[in-house]
Amino acid sequence: MILALIFLLVDILYGIKVSEVNSSFFDKNNTQAMRGFWCLVVIFAHIPVSYQNRIQDMISSFGYIAITFFFMTSAYGLTLSRDSHPEMIVSFWRKRLPKLIIVSIVVDVFFYVIRLLMFGEYNSPLSLLYIDNWVRWLIGCFLAFWIANKLFKEEKKWKIFASILVMIGSLVTYNLSKAGIMTSTIWPTECYGFIWGIALATIKTCFFNAFSKNWIYKMLACLVLSLTLGGLYLQYKWIPFAGDYLLKILLGIAITMFILIANTRIYFGNKISMFLGGISFELYLVHGYVINILDKYYSWDNSGAFIVCSFVISITCAYFIHLIDKNLIGMGKNICKYRMERGHS
Fold it and tell me: Residue 67: which of 95, 45, 47, 52 has the closest Cα?
């Protein structure tokens, strides 16, 4: 576990640079490096109960922040692209669906073959059509983004409407889950990251100018606020809506603000974090399969060994799948483009 913790710290802290002005504030490289860190936190959060320990439990407490961050970076990139190139909405699905669907299918096929050849486990071929719940949520947020842009051309209106649609989806799924109607994994608070991403892209310059001055004091203030809200959340998270919804959202905002304020002066990024960030989507989809296989077919006397093996095997599989799907994604985009052009003609 100490080795795993050291690796996590090296991933985010090695190579950081503090400057008077971070011209790379929340740009592609910074967000990719941070995704490389947060995808590791997600793995910690999904370790089976029988292999959990104190260090793992401490790190996994930030798992929902990791998911919030993924939603936020997706919306942030989309909004910047839309603001710069309004016509992007025409090819919106052609450029995004292939990656989401193709990667999901490649991961499903890969582990279907692994389970069949290595363990003789046969599953229905229909399982190859399974789409991860988080991917479905992301597609739902993309749909809200697309609908808002189709209905409103004015920048302010479509951003507000897209945020309202995501908020409605969050409230509906939260209440369905509480009523026992929806039993699958949901992210009613984490999906607010999509709203934060739209907002940050809109006020990026103002945010940077406001928080880059006296940044240490503002960052420490957010840290104190995060610790206070974290303590309140641990004590009152059992309270429906006020505790497990509103308070959790406020805690997520405070921690996210702490990260963003730090990024106004601190550049994150090294070869390790950039590599992991580049395969973060595959790593997210892969790690659940790997953990399930290691838990089901092997016996472990040490939780640290289980976690380290989960890390190593998940990263290896994610990289291998990334090499496969990046070519397939290009093909998928070209096919979609050809069909759209043929349809217009």
Answer: 45
